[in-house]
Amino acid sequence: MASVALIAIQIVIYVLWPPPETTGDFFALLIADPLRGLLALDLLYVISNLLAYLLYFALAAALWQVSRSAVVVALAFGVLGMAAYMASPRPVEMLALARAYQDADPVAQVALLATGDGMLATWRGTAFDVYYFFNLVTLLIFAVLMYRSTVFTRATAIWALVAAALMAVPSNFGTVGVVFALASLLPWAVFASLVARGLDRLST
User: Whole domain around residue 138: which residue ranges?
Assistant: First the structure.
């Protein structure tokens, strides 16, 4: 449920303060308002993904008896996907570059901007896409297992399938990707809430 709350906060932040488009604009924001700059660089999303990672482990435990081999495969994709994501965001590095940029001479500023461009490209690069597709596979497997389970309702499995389908287009695929990414947040939030209810019933 904390993950769902963070999703709502991230949406509000995105709507009120859209992220900058250029490295120079990111540096300016990080210098003027470091917290907003870090949030624009997905700092909350890192925390949200760590919570989702724990959710996968809880699902693995709850679905272990349905199919151990499928749970192992789902966790393998989930672990690799999360590891790929954690290697992609660069909020701390960008903050350090912005501070160096502020005090640098014009020649050094050009080099720091180029370094920042590389950081942003890594942030939304190959590792990010791997995270997206691997999490899609993880959700698909868990959805099938939940459909066969007595712990979770079929509605939970369906919402997982919808969230997985909308993750088929990563958010770095232009406008279409952004639309799919935003659209996937609602079914993910419903799915996570239903999973919480199922786990609560299981614990009692």
Answer: 48-88+126-204
* pTM (whole model) above 0.70: yes
Q: Angle formed by the axes of helices 174-203 and 2-16, to 10°?
A: 160
Torsion-angle region of residue 174: left (phi > 0), alpha (psi -120 to 50) or beta?
Answer: left
Same domain, yes or no, for 30 and 100?
yes
Structure token pair of residue 141: 């497997």
Question: Last residue of a domain, which of 99, 123, 147?
Answer: 123
| pLDDT bracket for residue 204 (50, 70, 90) | low
Last residue of a domain, one of 71, 98, 123: 123
Written as six digits, the tokens of 101 are 């940029």
Residues 40-56: what's their mean pLDDT? Answer: 86
Complete DSSP assignment for 160-190: HHHHHHHTTS-TTSHHHHHHHHHHHHHHHHH
Structure tokens belonging to residue 127: 């590792």
